[in-house]
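COMPLEX REQUEST
Ligand: iron/sulfur cluster
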Amino acid sequence: MAVRIIIGLALTVAAFAFAGRRLWWLYRVARTGQPAPERVAAVRGHPGRDASVEATEVIGQRKLLQWTVPGIAHALTFWGFIVLLLTILEAYGDLFSPTFAIPVIGHWPVTGFIEDLFAVGVLAGIITFAVIRLVNNPKREGRDSRFSGSHTGAAWLVLLGIFGVIATLLLYRGAQINTGHFPYAHGAFASQIVGHWLAPLGTGVNSVLETVFILAQLAVILGFLVFITYSKHLHIFMAFPNTYYANLEPKGHIQNMPVVTREVRSMLGLAASETAPVEPGRFGAKDVNDLSWNLLMSAYACTECGRCTSECPANLTGKKLSPRKIMMDTRDRLEQVGKNINANGSFKDDGKTLLNDFITVEELRACTTASKVPRSWLA
Ligand code: SF4
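STATUS: Structure written out below.
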């Protein structure tokens, strides 16, 4: 038992230290962006919007479910991980007491059934994702694959990591059935099947397997937590604030520039205005620190799914523009800016910019301002 506690807690402290360090770094980088008072005002101006938007867009997976097969697979994986928070709680409890059960619901057969049902659902989800990735292999399909240009290696690693979470979960639960430590007498059908497979190994071996796979379960989950903060799968966390501050204007709605100075009014041939400021405003964006913090957050919320690019009319007609690449370029430039901040304490001009060094003018000029360009980019 002491081995379980020491290793389990050491893994937890190490994982939270690495993940926390990275999240702090990301926060510092996001602070290099411009303020976004209109987004904050929009949220404040719609009381109750936050809960309903999070419920339908994130928890309800509304948009993803518009794409039937990948949408259902994503929803199964997402909902599965919410339900599996219960099993993570059980794994931590098992570090301290082999017969741990969640208070009140921890012996209900329906709890065990739901946990196993969603564990199997997550497995079905990741198998579907693997098949979709194999069918749309960018090496074979080239530009026609919606995964072309994305980090496919990281995506496979995540699928492997999720498989590891479910495999270790079912293995330690199966071993627990054979050691008499499992909290559910009925209902946990998948764990019972695995327990049946492991039963011939005897109680002694199952006891060792129980400890090994509880620790393996925590190691995989904690490793996954750290990996998420360093990869495109940060969208798992960023989806919540990104949706919270999202622009709810109709698709394709482009807002006016916030400040039109007298100089710009004259350039645009607009009538003179006494109230227009004299100081020239700063328009457009050359580098990431010209973008607002919520646009920078959107870059980290991009999961490189390629939905935007696969529906972008400019991209479909063979032009260079890929909305996904713009999000990835923004993120890549931010990483560079963050390293610069780390080295210098604050951002020092490194002679590079998002525009030209990452995104070409040709790409931007290909934009037709169609409504399927990521809404956040238009915000
Ligand atoms: S920006 Fe494009 S690639 Fe990124 S998550 Fe949104 S639709 Fe997917």
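REMARKS: Residues 133 and 152 are 9 Å apart (CA to CA). DSSP finds 19 helices and no strands in the chain.
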